[in-house]
Amino acid sequence: MKSQIEDLRKKIYEIQESGSIASLYVIEQEVSETQDDALLGGFYANILELAMERLTQALEAPRKLDMNEVEDFATLRALYEYALEHYDASSLDDASALFEILAGLSDDDKFSDAMQRHNKAIKSKINLDTFLEKVADVALTEHNGTFYISEFK
Prior knowledge:
mainly alpha; 9 helices; 0% strand; 76% helix; single chain
């Protein structure tokens, strides 16, 4: 098991050096199965670090991220997950700012609209559990297969 974790750490490092968020997501299941909290925490920190770098590049360019381009897609996913973490932790100002950035960052109108709806819920003081229960249509979102809450009641 120790050798497997060391091999996985090496693979993560190599992928991080390549700058590919999408490649990190490809090995996500493998990392999760190790049940090594330090490895898992570092893994998601690597994804977030790369996503923040790509966010900075996009803002400096300026350019919108293309949902049809694999690295842009993975970047949006990572930043969305980060925004949800803030929302779940009741860091509403941070979550709101991230959803606002995401709404303007993507070239996909449906994604941008969904991020605006997330932000509107936060501004209305709706916590994440209530948002998921009363505002979001989680079943339809799962049916559609989007990585973000894309359907609403």
